[in-house]
Amino acid sequence: MESLRQQKVNKLLAKELAEIFRSEARNLFGGGFITVTGVRVSPDLSSAKVYVSIMPTSGIDKNVVFKLIEDHTSVIRRKLGAIVGKQLRIVPELMFFIDDSLDYAMKIEALLKK
Question: In the β-sheet with 47-55, what is the strand arrangement from edge to edge?
Fold first, then answer.
């Protein structure tokens, strides 16, 4: 069970990370459309699991975009720290995961239509 503080930090991080991905998509990630689907912060607020959904554009593969996200984790964390530095004592260590629940739902829907 998450505490109220964890829930608030989850929402704050999701909102700010989504803005970072929106503004830096062309520069850092090759123009892929990246959506933050969820954030789960640890009880001590030192690490956060960030779930992203990636819609590749202009012939770039989803795995390539995810690799770019992982390669730029320190840049993302630095930008996040500049935004939420006054609200959080420690900017959490970010761990990114692909959220493929939308792909799974589309696969199930296609199977049910047959």
Answer: 33-41, 47-55, 93-98
CATH of the domain at 53: 3.30.300.20
Number of domains in the chain: 1
Give the residues of the chain that fall short of pLDDT 70: none
For residue 31, how many C-alpha atoms fall within 13 Å in the half-sphere facing its CB? 4
- Predicted confidence at residue 2, as pLDDT, reads 85
Tokens of 87: 């609200």
Cβ neighbours for 23, distance < 8 A, ≥ 6 positions apart: none
For 102, the domain range is 4-113
